[in-house]
TrEMBL record:
The keyword Transmembrane applies. Residues 1-75 form the Cytochrome oxidase subunit II transmembrane region profile domain. PANTHER family: CYTOCHROME C OXIDASE SUBUNIT 2 (PTHR22888:SF9), CYTOCHROME C OXIDASE, SUBUNIT II (PTHR22888). Coiled coil: none annotated. Residues 76-206 form the Cytochrome oxidase subunit II copper A binding domain. Its cofactor is Cu cation. This is Cytochrome c oxidase subunit 2. The gene is COII.
Protein backbone atom coordinates (compact mmCIF):
# COMPACT_ATOMS: atom_id res chain seq x y z
CA UNK A 1 0.00 0.00 0.00
CA UNK A 2 2.93 2.34 0.67
CA UNK A 3 4.27 1.66 -2.81
CA UNK A 4 0.83 2.34 -4.32
CA UNK A 5 0.73 5.65 -2.44
CA UNK A 6 4.23 6.56 -3.69
CA UNK A 7 3.21 5.71 -7.25
CA UNK A 8 0.11 7.89 -6.93
CA UNK A 9 2.25 10.84 -5.78
CA UNK A 10 4.76 10.20 -8.60
CA UNK A 11 2.00 10.16 -11.26
CA UNK A 12 0.31 13.23 -9.78
CA UNK A 13 3.59 15.19 -9.88
CA UNK A 14 4.02 14.35 -13.58
CA UNK A 15 0.42 15.40 -14.29
CA UNK A 16 0.92 18.73 -12.48
CA UNK A 17 4.07 19.44 -14.50
CA UNK A 18 2.26 18.64 -17.77
CA UNK A 19 -0.75 20.80 -16.79
CA UNK A 20 1.44 23.79 -15.85
CA UNK A 21 3.52 23.48 -19.03
CA UNK A 22 0.52 23.18 -21.38
CA UNK A 23 -1.31 26.00 -19.56
CA UNK A 24 1.70 28.30 -19.86
CA UNK A 25 2.04 27.52 -23.59
CA UNK A 26 -1.68 28.19 -24.19
CA UNK A 27 -1.53 31.51 -22.32
CA UNK A 28 1.53 32.51 -24.38
CA UNK A 29 -0.32 31.65 -27.62
CA UNK A 30 -3.37 33.69 -26.59
CA UNK A 31 -1.51 36.85 -25.66
CA UNK A 32 1.54 37.11 -27.94
CA UNK A 33 1.60 39.14 -31.16
CA UNK A 34 4.18 37.07 -33.03
CA UNK A 35 3.40 35.93 -36.59
CA UNK A 36 5.47 34.43 -39.39
CA UNK A 37 3.78 34.14 -42.78
CA UNK A 38 6.61 32.00 -44.22
CA UNK A 39 6.65 29.43 -41.38
CA UNK A 40 5.44 26.19 -43.01
CA UNK A 41 7.14 23.46 -40.96
CA UNK A 42 9.20 22.95 -37.84
CA UNK A 43 10.68 19.46 -37.79
CA UNK A 44 12.68 19.97 -34.61
CA UNK A 45 9.67 21.00 -32.54
CA UNK A 46 7.63 18.13 -34.03
CA UNK A 47 10.33 15.65 -32.96
CA UNK A 48 10.39 17.20 -29.46
CA UNK A 49 6.61 17.05 -28.96
CA UNK A 50 6.56 13.44 -30.18
CA UNK A 51 9.49 12.17 -28.08
CA UNK A 52 8.67 14.01 -24.82
CA UNK A 53 5.21 12.40 -24.30
CA UNK A 54 6.72 8.97 -25.07
CA UNK A 55 9.43 9.48 -22.44
CA UNK A 56 6.78 10.71 -19.96
CA UNK A 57 4.67 7.58 -20.52
CA UNK A 58 7.74 5.40 -19.91
CA UNK A 59 8.35 7.20 -16.57
CA UNK A 60 4.76 6.33 -15.59
CA UNK A 61 4.67 2.78 -17.04
CA UNK A 62 7.86 1.38 -15.47
CA UNK A 63 6.88 1.95 -11.78
CA UNK A 64 3.36 0.73 -12.61
CA UNK A 65 4.64 -2.56 -14.09
CA UNK A 66 6.97 -3.01 -11.11
CA UNK A 67 4.01 -2.63 -8.75
CA UNK A 68 1.95 -5.21 -10.66
CA UNK A 69 4.69 -7.81 -10.18
CA UNK A 70 5.22 -6.86 -6.51
CA UNK A 71 1.49 -7.38 -5.82
CA UNK A 72 1.60 -10.92 -7.27
CA UNK A 73 4.76 -11.93 -5.43
CA UNK A 74 4.58 -14.37 -2.51
CA UNK A 75 7.80 -14.30 -0.43
CA UNK A 76 8.01 -17.40 1.78
CA UNK A 77 4.98 -16.63 3.97
CA UNK A 78 5.33 -17.28 7.69
CA UNK A 79 1.58 -17.55 8.28
CA UNK A 80 -1.12 -18.89 5.96
CA UNK A 81 -4.76 -18.02 6.63
CA UNK A 82 -7.71 -19.36 4.67
CA UNK A 83 -10.73 -17.09 4.36
CA UNK A 84 -14.11 -18.41 3.19
CA UNK A 85 -16.91 -16.03 2.26
CA UNK A 86 -20.49 -16.96 3.16
CA UNK A 87 -23.80 -15.16 2.94
CA UNK A 88 -23.18 -13.02 5.00
CA UNK A 89 -20.14 -13.64 7.17
CA UNK A 90 -16.51 -14.76 6.87
CA UNK A 91 -14.94 -17.89 8.29
CA UNK A 92 -11.20 -18.29 8.84
CA UNK A 93 -8.78 -21.20 9.21
CA UNK A 94 -5.18 -21.06 10.50
CA UNK A 95 -3.68 -24.24 9.10
CA UNK A 96 0.02 -23.72 9.95
CA UNK A 97 -0.45 -24.49 13.65
CA UNK A 98 -3.05 -26.67 15.25
CA UNK A 99 -6.40 -26.47 13.50
CA UNK A 100 -7.83 -23.07 14.43
CA UNK A 101 -11.20 -22.25 12.84
CA UNK A 102 -13.76 -19.58 13.63
CA UNK A 103 -16.56 -17.57 12.07
CA UNK A 104 -16.52 -13.77 12.01
CA UNK A 105 -19.90 -12.01 12.20
CA UNK A 106 -20.67 -8.32 12.32
CA UNK A 107 -21.57 -7.13 15.84
CA UNK A 108 -25.30 -6.22 15.92
CA UNK A 109 -26.14 -2.65 16.88
CA UNK A 110 -27.89 -3.69 20.12
CA UNK A 111 -24.73 -5.57 21.28
CA UNK A 112 -22.19 -2.87 20.45
CA UNK A 113 -19.83 -1.42 23.07
CA UNK A 114 -19.00 2.33 23.12
CA UNK A 115 -15.63 1.69 21.40
CA UNK A 116 -17.11 -0.41 18.55
CA UNK A 117 -17.60 1.00 15.05
CA UNK A 118 -21.08 0.64 13.57
CA UNK A 119 -21.21 -1.83 10.62
CA UNK A 120 -17.42 -2.36 10.84
CA UNK A 121 -16.67 -4.34 14.00
CA UNK A 122 -16.84 -8.13 14.26
CA UNK A 123 -17.08 -10.61 17.11
CA UNK A 124 -13.92 -12.52 16.08
CA UNK A 125 -11.03 -10.55 14.59
CA UNK A 126 -8.32 -12.01 12.35
CA UNK A 127 -5.06 -11.78 14.30
CA UNK A 128 -1.75 -11.47 12.43
CA UNK A 129 1.82 -10.77 13.60
CA UNK A 130 3.27 -7.50 12.31
CA UNK A 131 6.44 -7.38 10.18
CA UNK A 132 5.62 -10.90 9.00
CA UNK A 133 4.73 -12.09 5.52
CA UNK A 134 1.11 -13.31 5.48
CA UNK A 135 -0.47 -15.45 2.76
CA UNK A 136 -4.25 -15.25 2.51
CA UNK A 137 -6.10 -17.99 0.64
CA UNK A 138 -9.56 -16.77 -0.31
CA UNK A 139 -12.59 -18.67 -1.58
CA UNK A 140 -16.37 -18.60 -1.20
CA UNK A 141 -19.01 -21.15 -0.27
CA UNK A 142 -21.99 -19.70 -2.14
CA UNK A 143 -21.66 -16.54 -4.30
CA UNK A 144 -18.81 -14.23 -5.31
CA UNK A 145 -17.49 -12.08 -2.45
CA UNK A 146 -14.46 -9.80 -2.25
CA UNK A 147 -12.01 -9.72 0.67
CA UNK A 148 -10.86 -6.10 0.87
CA UNK A 149 -8.66 -4.20 3.36
CA UNK A 150 -7.90 -0.75 1.87
CA UNK A 151 -5.28 0.21 4.49
CA UNK A 152 -3.15 -2.81 3.53
CA UNK A 153 -3.74 -2.46 -0.21
CA UNK A 154 -5.50 -5.83 -0.33
CA UNK A 155 -8.46 -6.66 -2.57
CA UNK A 156 -9.10 -10.17 -3.85
CA UNK A 157 -12.23 -11.89 -5.10
CA UNK A 158 -13.64 -14.89 -3.27
CA UNK A 159 -15.06 -17.16 -5.97
CA UNK A 160 -16.87 -20.48 -5.34
CA UNK A 161 -14.81 -23.43 -6.55
CA UNK A 162 -11.63 -21.37 -6.90
CA UNK A 163 -8.81 -20.69 -4.44
CA UNK A 164 -7.20 -17.25 -4.87
CA UNK A 165 -4.13 -16.18 -2.93
CA UNK A 166 -2.65 -12.83 -1.98
CA UNK A 167 0.35 -11.83 0.09
CA UNK A 168 0.66 -8.86 2.44
CA UNK A 169 2.35 -7.68 5.61
CA UNK A 170 1.74 -5.06 8.26
CA UNK A 171 4.62 -2.92 9.53
CA UNK A 172 2.94 -1.83 12.78
CA UNK A 173 0.38 -2.94 15.31
CA UNK A 174 -3.22 -1.76 15.00
CA UNK A 175 -6.70 -2.51 13.72
CA UNK A 176 -7.40 -2.53 9.98
CA UNK A 177 -11.00 -2.47 8.78
CA UNK A 178 -12.46 -3.65 5.49
CA UNK A 179 -15.66 -4.88 3.88
CA UNK A 180 -16.87 -7.15 1.11
CA UNK A 181 -16.63 -5.05 -2.05
CA UNK A 182 -18.56 -7.41 -4.33
CA UNK A 183 -22.36 -7.03 -4.41
CA UNK A 184 -23.20 -10.48 -3.02
CA UNK A 185 -26.83 -10.20 -1.97
CA UNK A 186 -29.25 -8.54 0.41
CA UNK A 187 -26.85 -8.26 3.39
CA UNK A 188 -23.75 -7.47 1.33
CA UNK A 189 -22.90 -4.44 3.47
CA UNK A 190 -23.12 -6.42 6.73
CA UNK A 191 -20.06 -8.69 6.44
CA UNK A 192 -17.09 -6.53 7.54
CA UNK A 193 -13.48 -7.66 7.96
CA UNK A 194 -11.23 -6.68 10.88
CA UNK A 195 -7.50 -7.44 10.99
CA UNK A 196 -5.77 -7.09 14.36
CA UNK A 197 -2.02 -6.70 13.92
CA UNK A 198 -0.13 -7.70 17.07
CA UNK A 199 3.46 -8.52 18.03
CA UNK A 200 4.77 -11.98 17.05
CA UNK A 201 5.14 -12.96 20.73
CA UNK A 202 1.51 -12.12 21.51
CA UNK A 203 0.48 -13.94 18.33
CA UNK A 204 2.29 -17.14 19.37
CA UNK A 205 0.71 -16.96 22.84
CA UNK A 206 -2.71 -16.49 21.24
Amino acid sequence: MEQLSFFHDHSLLILVIITVLVGQLMMTLFFNKFSHRLLLEGQLIEIIWTVLPAVTLIFIALPSLRLIYILDEVNNPSVTIKSIGHQWYWSYEYTDFKKIEFDSYMIPINEMKPFNFRLLDVDNRVKIPYETQIRMLVTAADVIHSWTIPALGVKIDATPGRLNQISFSSNRSGLFYGQCSEICGANHSFMPIVIESISPNYFMNW
